[in-house]
Amino acid sequence: MVVENGRIVEIGRRTPPGAVEQDLGDALLIPGLVNAHTHLEFSSLKKRLGKPGISLPEWVRLVIGQRPTSRQVDKAVAAGLQQSVQAGVTTVADICRLPSNAYADAAVCPRSVLMQESIGYSQARAASALSAAKQGLEELGAASQRADGRVSLGVSPHAPYTVSPHLIRELVSLASERRLPVALHLAESPEELELMNSGTGPFQELLEERSMWDPWSVSRGATPQDYLRILNLAPHALVVHGNYLDHASLAMMGRHADSMSLVYCPRTHSYFQHSEYPLAEALALGVRVCIGSDSLASSPDLSILSEMREVAAKHPTVSPDAILRMATHSGAEALGVNDRSGSIRPGAPADMVAVNVPGGIDGRANSLLESVLNDDQPIAGCWIGGQAVV
C-alpha cells in the first residue's frame, strides 16, 4: 500500500521507485476501527459502576452521581481520546453533554463525531431543551473549527426514558435541516419497555424522584417501532443498544438500512447480563450493525478490537468478515463519514490498524482474521492520515 500526503494512492505488490518501505511483518492491516457509540466524559473512571447484572435504572442513578463537572470534562475526554487511539480507534462518535477543548487540544485525535446530548422528558421542557441543543451545537461547532477538519457534529436525544417523543421529533427535524446524524438509546432494557407500554415501573419512579415525570409525555402502549418511525426521518439514525428489539422492529430497520443503523455494545450488554443479543437475526434481516464501546461506566476499556473479540466469542455463527465490517465500514456509513473513514482503498485517508497474526495459521483471509479475533494481543500499530500514532 502506497501512502502519499496522508492518503492511500495505490495498493499492489510492488514498491514504487523512491518509496520508503516499512515491513510490518506477520500482521493484518485493517481499516482504522470505528467506535460508533461512546461517552468519553466518563473516561476518568477507575472501574465500572455497580456490579454485573445491575438493573439499568439503578445504574443510571449511579451515573447521575458520577457525572463530571465542566472542569473535569476536558481531562476525561482527553484521556478517552488517548485510550481510543492506543486501541486502534481512528473514528469515534462521542455523546457530548458539555463542550470540551480536548478535541482541538489533543496532540493526536481520532476523527470525531460529536453528538450533542439532549434531555427533556416533560412536554413543558421541550422548547427549552431544543434551544439548549442548538446552543450546544454552536459551542461544539466552535471547538470543531479548531480541530484540523477531523471533527463533525450530530445530535443525540438521550433515550425514551429521558426525552419526550415531541422533543425527539424536533431534534430529528433539526438534524435533517443540517444533515447531521442522530443517535438514540432505544430498547435497552425491560424497564424502558415497561415505561413505554404502561407508564409504570422503575424508570417512572426515577423520573418522579427527579421531578421530571410527565404522565402525558408518552401514549400508553408505545413500542420501539414508534420511535423508529421518528428516527427514520433523519439522514443518518443510530439506534444504540437495541437489546430488546423484536422481529418486527429489526425487519423495519432492515428495510431502511440505507439511513438507519443498529449499534451493538457487546461488553456493556454482557455486563448488564441482558438476554441474548439478536445479532444473527438482525444481520439476516439486512440491518446495518456497527459496534460501540459505550463508556467506562459499563465497559472495562475503549477497545473496539476487544469488542470484536466479544462478538466472536458470543456469536460463533457470525463470520469474521462480518465482524470486521461492523467495526469499520458499517460504523463509518452509520455516521455518514464513510467518505473519509472505515475502509482501505485508493483515495481514502490512510487510517489503518496493524494486528499481529499468531503463528501457525494458514494464509486464507478468514483464517487470519479468525485467529486475530480468537487471540488477545493488542494492536501492533495505528495510523491516522498516514501518521503513525501507535
From TrEMBL:
What highest taxon heads this organism's lineage? Answer: Bacteria
Read off the SUPFAM superfamilies from this record: Composite domain of metallo-dependent hydrolases, Metallo-dependent hydrolases
* Phosphoprotein recorded as keyword: no
Signal peptide residue numbers: none
Entry keywords, A to Z: Hydrolase
Q: What is its EC number?
A: 3.5.4.-
Q: Please list the residue ranges annotated as the Amidohydrolase-related domain.
A: 29-388
The enzyme's main class, written as a single word, is hydrolase
- GO molecular function, one example? hydrolase activity, acting on carbon-nitrogen (but not peptide) bonds
Protein name from the UniProt record:
Aminodeoxyfutalosine deaminase
